[in-house]
């Protein structure tokens, strides 16, 4: 499991964007690395894996990836602490982190900076919910099955999407994150509609939902042609809302990268869909225009 956005924001904010050892100013954005800045690295105090440096521990993976077990370092010092474990034991690194964050608070910290950080941390919990409940890490994989001629959805996904929608509805957003609020609301709405549309004619079998081909009655169907048309229309509606969800996922990620974390899904890039049939599949990129973004989520037909 990856480090969540809330813990990343806490680590960088409380570390003052500086290496805990040499105090060098760091950046999260690979594209912004200049002579005055170094790309920062979120180092694990207790190793992320058992075989990693300082990895022998009873901590769970979630605990290993939490803010409390992370220290912000420059690449040189990250390499140094992992190569010289005897010189950099767990206790010493915890002490270094604590001392550095106190130095940041006393030397660099400003009341307004801490206020901004607090707002950003509150927003990152919503971002983490979006990643978790929309299965964003596995987006292209699960949507490729959902966009197939016979769409299938994982068993727990519709409930997860509903949980995400409830989280967004109940969230309180700072005013300065208005576009992120609109993008997140749009993402939760489109995804929730996509799930509701699919669930109209689907049946659960073991670990997946499959389409209910209601035009096949098991006997003579007097309305066969009409039912086939209805079924095809439903399949198209399922696909259309997943495409809409992919557009909103890309908008959401773009705003997160701009306003919160420039490295948010930066390695994987934009969210794509794989669409096609037995004759072949094609990767497609779906994005909103600037004009469409300006009217969302109010323009959604819900």
Task: Give structural notes.
- The chain is mainly alpha-helical and 302 residues long.
- The protein folds into 2 domains: 5-109, no CATH class; 115-295, no CATH class.
- It contains 10 helices and 9 strands.
- It has helices spanning 5-14, 61-64, 75-83, 90-108, 111-133, 139-146, 157-169, 178-199, 224-259, 290-295; strands at 26-27, 38-39, 41-44, 70-73, 153-154, 202-205, 208-211, 272-277, 280-285.
- The chain is elongated and about 80 Å long.
Q: What secondary-structure arrangement, pairings included, does this model have?
A:
Elements (H helix, E strand, L loop, with lengths): L4 H10 L11 E2 L10 E2 L1 E4 L16 H4 L5 E4 L1 H9 L6 H19 L2 H23 L5 H8 L6 E2 L2 H13 L8 H22 L2 E4 L2 E4 L12 H36 L12 E6 L2 E6 L4 H6 L7
Parallel strand pairs: 1-2
Antiparallel strand pairs: 3-4, 5-7, 6-7, 8-9
Helix pairs in contact: 1-5, 5-7, 7-8, 8-9
């Amino acid at each position: 499991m990856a480090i969540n956005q809330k813990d990343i924001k806490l680590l960088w904010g409380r570390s003052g964007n500086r290496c805990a050892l040499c105090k060098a100013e760091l950046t999260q954005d690979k594209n912004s690395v200049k002579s005055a800045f170094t790309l920062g690295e979120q180092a694990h105090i207790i190793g992320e894996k058992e075989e990693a440096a300082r990895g022998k521990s009873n901590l769970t993976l979630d605990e290993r990836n939490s803010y409390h077990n992370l220290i912000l370092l420059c690449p040189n010092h990250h390499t140094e602490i992992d190569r010289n474990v005897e010189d950099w034991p767990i206790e010493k690194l915890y002490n270094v982190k604590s001392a550095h964050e106190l130095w940041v608070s006393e030397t660099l910290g400003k009341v307004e900076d801490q206020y901004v950080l607090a707002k950003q941390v509150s927003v990152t919990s919503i971002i983490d919910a979006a990643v978790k409940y929309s299965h964003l890490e596995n987006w292209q994989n699960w949507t490729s099955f959902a966009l197939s001629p016979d769409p299938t959805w994982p068993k727990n996904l519709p409930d997860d999407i509903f949980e995400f929608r409830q989280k967004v509805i109940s969230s309180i957003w700072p005013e300065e994150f208005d576009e992120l609020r609109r993008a997140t609301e749009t993402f939760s709405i489109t995804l929730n509609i996509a799930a509701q549309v699919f669930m109209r004619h689907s049946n659960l079998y073991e670990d997946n939902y499959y389409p209910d081909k209601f035009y096949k009655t098991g006997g003579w169907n007097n309305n066969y042609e009409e039912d086939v048309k209805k079924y095809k229309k439903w399949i198209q509606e399922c696909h259309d809302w997943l495409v809409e969800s992919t557009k909103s996922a890309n908008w959401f990620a773009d705003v997160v990268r701009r306003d919160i974390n420039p490295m948010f899904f930066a390695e994987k890039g934009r969210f794509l869909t794989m669409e096609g049939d037995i004759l072949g599949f094609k990767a497609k990129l779906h994005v909103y225009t600037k004009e469409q973004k300006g009217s969302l989520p109010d323009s959604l037909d819900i």
